[in-house]
Amino acid sequence: MAIKDLQLAAKTAVDGFLSGINRSTIKGPGLEFSQYRSYQPGEDLRWLDWKMYARSDRYYIRESEVETSISLRLVVDASGSMNHEDGGIKKIGYARYLAASLAYLAHKQGDAVGLYVCQEGNLFSLAARPEHQHMAHLYYQLEKIEAGGKFTDPVHYKNLFAAARRREIVIFISDLYERAGELQSFLDQLAAYKHEVIVFHLLARNEQELDFKGYTALQDLETGEVIKTDPGQIRKEYQQQLTGYLAALRMRMLDKGIFYRLISLDQPLDGALRDFLNQRTKLKT
Hints:
- The chain has 8 helices and 13 strands.
- It is an alpha/beta fold.
- A 6-stranded mixed β-sheet has the order 8-7-4-9-10-13, with helices on both faces.
- The longest helix has 25 residues.
- The protein is elongated and about 85 Å long.
């Protein structure tokens, strides 16, 4: 977070994470030799190795390792609750760095990356593309994000993801704050389109522990509503209800086939990057 240049921060985080990790590959007709295997009737004759046939009088297929690409859509919740802060870090700031790092990692893997920013009355969209110039535009748009208002109205996103011709990875970065089930409805639609959906749920440590010493009131960052309370008196009951809510949320995501991970703002990005690589490999195979 100390690095202000978003692209440089993403490169630093990802390159450090990738140290010692090889690129994901699958076997098939490509450029880098992997192994030979016996020819099976009906297979494409173009991949026969005729030099091996000349030496052994037997047919062999030359398998190689090839890179595969996917399409990644990064969806960032930019509603007002993402302005919540803990330890000098806002949720929207963490979301920027997380999205930038995931975009850099995906681009490094040869994937097309798109960006979608959800905010009241609007849905900014940047279609997924693999070009280097496109990534510069994506980082620029990430740096411009300012949280405010409520979540995007359904009219702006109901048909957004239906046009994809193949399954994609959709990563939703949000604190999942909602008042009328609007985010769950959004995720239900994504799951219905059979995309591989990953949800990174951002929660600050002071939210999880209700650590607001000296405060006598809490304000809703989206509606402005103020609730007078004593955090010390309600902390135990609050944490019990939060535990129940998170358990129910995980089960709901599991039932919908959505990959879910809770991330605290004081945690490094490594876990999220590893989750993306795992789901990327799953989608390819």
